[in-house]
Amino acid sequence: MTIYTNNFLSSINKELAQLNINLKKMIVAEHPILYAAAEQLFKAGGKRIRPALVLLVAKITTTDTKIKPEQKRLAEITEIIHTASLVHDDIIDDCEKRRGINTVHNMFNHKIAVLAGDFLFAQSSWYLANLNNLNVVKTISKVITDFAEGEVQQGSKHFDNKISIQDYIEKSFYKTASLIASSCKATTILSNCNKNVQNDFYLYGKHIGLAFQIIDDILDIVSCSENLGKPAGSDLKNGNLTAPLIFALEEKPELNQLINQEFQNTADINKTIRMIKQTKAIQKSKDLAEEHIQLAIQILKNKYSNKNIENLMLTSYYILDRIS
Prior knowledge:
Strand content: under 5%
Keywords: Chloroplast, Isoprene biosynthesis, Magnesium, Metal-binding, Plastid, Transferase
GO biological process, one term: isoprenoid biosynthetic process
Family: Belongs to the FPP/GGPP synthase family.
Distance between the termini: 13 Å
Oligomer: single chain
Organism: Bostrychia tenella
Mean pLDDT: 87
Structural class: mainly alpha
Protein name: Prenyl transferase
């Protein structure tokens, strides 16, 4: 864990520890297989970036920097929704590992995995309704439809070498940034902030989410399987053309042939990764992520004191630091 992580999480360490305890209590299911499948997801841990952002935004926007119980619950709901989306992602992408352990469909079967994902979405909806705040329900509910839109967009562009960076950013918003943006906004609603503040933190979350996805996609190319917790080159194998490959196509049009052949084997994937690394694509992708980080920071720096937003700034730098 980097210096950034230690710094930006230090003020909410207690809340994050409690969140991990509460998540296990919130996924109680009557059927033991369904419970085991859901528990498998949380056993792997994860970065907990999404709930951390909710808790940090809560500290900034409440009058006495005291996080409300409803905001702590929102952080938990956010992580459950994210985890549910991963189950469905793993099924669609036929991913064998997630965070270094067997995926649910690999450990059980596809039917159990689908049901586990649906169960988690249902649980999150129930807890969301119990917040008794219609605006928060409306804001977070939209995320689940965005997930579906993102998956459809991604599925309809498998191995499509005509995909543009704009298409990629739009899909990344639906699949990743929407949840982060909406949960940041919902936190400010629970803090009784005005519409301008709600919009500021929505945009902050949107740009942080886009940067986070771009960095994830770079790591899929430059990291080893052990660091990723899943096989490197998974996006290529599944036909998901991301920023590094889209940028690399500008310099190496011969990559089109490998895309058209749908990366038939591991050798093709390794060859593609080598070719991407020979171009400026990784740097261009990192520049794109940094652009979104700077937009996120600027939104807050223009209106809030540096002291108040310090931890959110560190979060932003941590995201970039993952590939330095």
